[in-house]
Write a structure and sequence with these properties.
The protein is an alpha+beta fold and 580 residues long. Among the domains are: 22-63; 85-138. The protein contains 20 helices and 15 strands. It has helices spanning 14-17, 22-34, 40-46, 51-63, 85-95, 100-109, 116-125, 174-178, 182-185, 197-209, 225-231, 239-248, 253-267, 335-347, 363-371, 384-391, 454-477, 491-512, 521-529, 552-557, and strands spanning 161-165, 275-284, 293-297, 302-314, 320-327, 353-355, 375-379, 399-400, 414-421, 428-435, 443-447, 533-537, 541-546, 565-567, 573-579. Strands 2, 3, 4, 5, 6, 7, 8, 9, 10 and 11 form a 10-stranded mixed sheet that branches. It has a 5-stranded mixed sheet with strand order 1-12-13-15-14. α2 packs antiparallel against α3 (40-46).
Length: 580
Amino acid sequence: MFNGKHKKLTNPAQAFLRPVNSTHRQYEALRAYFVDKLPSKDVAGRFGYSPGSFRVLVHDFRRNPQRPFFLPPAKGPKESPKSDPLRSQIIQARKQNLSVYDIERLLQEQGHRLSAVSIAKILKEEGFARLPRRADEERPAHPHPQRAAIADVRELDLNPRQFRTEFGGLFLFMPYLVAIPWEKVFSGFPGSRMIPAIHAIRSLLGLKLYGWARHSHVMPEAFDPGLALFAGLNCIPKRSFLTEYSCRIRPASYPKSMRRWFEAMRSLGLSSGDSFDLDFHTIPFHGEDALLQKHYVSKRSRRQKGILAFLVQDADTHVFCYANAKVRKEDQADEILRFIDYWKKQTGRLPRELIFDSKLTTYRNLSKVNGQGIDFITLRRRSAPMLREMAALPASAWRQIHLEGVSRLYRHPHIVDQKIQLRGYEGLIRQITITELGHEEPTLLLTNQRTRSAAKLIERYARRMIIENNIQDSIDFFHMDALSSAVAMKVDCDVQLTLMGSSLYRLFGQELGQGYERAKSRTLFRDFVRASAIVDITPEEITVRFQKRAHNPLLLNAAFDKKPVPVPWLRNKTLRLVFG
């Protein structure tokens, strides 16, 4: 008989109705849909899915209905048995003061494959504590990686010698770098007697220009003398220095250095247009930082913690001409105004045209852009009432136009061209409603260009879609969002290096000609920069001799072999390029 106060008993059904992990939740949701025949919307609401994500889950299950939800129990002993023949050998090795990794190598030499984790577990069961950290001379003798020298500009060896380098293509940029006033551009950047500021920047820039590897992969290249010679050092700095150096640069130094850098680029002949494509890019962050905000990551189609970078690309030359990697959600709508101010200070004139997506700024800021006399093209977000209004338009309101430079399937869309009023925008704005352009719903294009034909406006924005892919390709090539824990590079520093690398590649392609003026950086790297070479240092000059390649005639036609230049950071020795 039950005595005492009433107590609420646990309901065992809650174990099924409240799944504790994602696999259990998927099983219960799919069972409710397929077995209990509940509507998709009700199942999604009950188990915490959005209707769209639950439809994707159902679709994936239909494609693979045999996916396992329940794993068979693991059989066999859960711990290593005391009779394990290796146990006594492991204990005996530990008594000789060998670490788990030393024991692992010892067992491998005897033909036994046992992981360091398993060895550590056995030692823990036997009551052995972890060994204290030992000096190198206290460890057992076995092969170690060779240590590179310490980077020191005073140890740079320019005595006559010859060597082979995998970084020969970097010397193609040397004539441009020689013409840059490094001390002026990077004044205020930290440096030391061993690694001055301009040598540190050139080291980072060399790795950025050679886009095939991340910064974390620099250690295997520490012995390549060509990369060190490019920077003007005896060897490339270690990754610990790269991390520490990017943290020492004051944030206020970047805007000044970028203005001076692009002034130097224009003096070298890098052309600039007056039409720009603006976009945001989220650099994912995988650590723990309470101050970071969540932003949309297009590659993963989801929102996650990351750093929001604002990028501006010249529509004519595809050069990144502005970037800000410190954008907050509450400030992102005003980035377009900051770029306008920057460009006016940089060039003395306002940009002529800005092209951007619908979520980049607000209608109030669009009114400010229009008030400065700057043309813009953007999209308008669709809403359900707007879609109903467009569906109610009579057939006579639509007219067909012809487009050039777009897919053959969508060259004859129908449009409605009208002037409308937007909340926060002073005056009327032109809105072009477009159908049959490859989208299920009509596209709404907003612009303040009232006299330009609708076909030209649509074609220009269609090119921006292609340029948006070029922006993503450039970001991938310059590995701006490939930051790793091995080299915790500050995003400000990495973004500025990306701008520098992008401008150098554009200048290189512009000088090459032959269709490479608008080529992607990845293409220029593949055809020209990724090239090994023989470097011959003599008392008077440094000769970089490239192997015979299919694209060498293009370099000869551009007279890269006829531009010997004295390099100040290589004791004014003349650099000469020779193509086999």
